[in-house]
Amino acid sequence: xxxxxxxxxxxxxxxxxxxxxxxxxxxEAAAMAGFKRPIVxxxxxxxxxxxxxxxxxxxxxITTYDMKFHKPLLVDSVVSFDFVDRxxxxxxxxxxxNGEVITSGILSVKERQR
Length: 114
Hints:
4 helices
């Protein structure tokens, strides 16, 4: 599943999370840190991965997660979210437009109780 991470989405996330660090919002601050554009919050990527998975699997519930961040993602990039079920443990891989892994990890899931 592909998703463009927009500047508008990051501005909204920054306001809600109260993480207003300049590296996520300001091009000049990002450039001083060596990036072409601001970088996406890691927690935004992780939360988006969980949200996208649950949208496709509404009968499931995430019980635990373990995500590792491998490299920063620039704002206004398209990323791919790949999910592979391994007996109730969902392997998550998030890659950028160049196929480089941004984030990877495991979501443990179970069926929702009604």
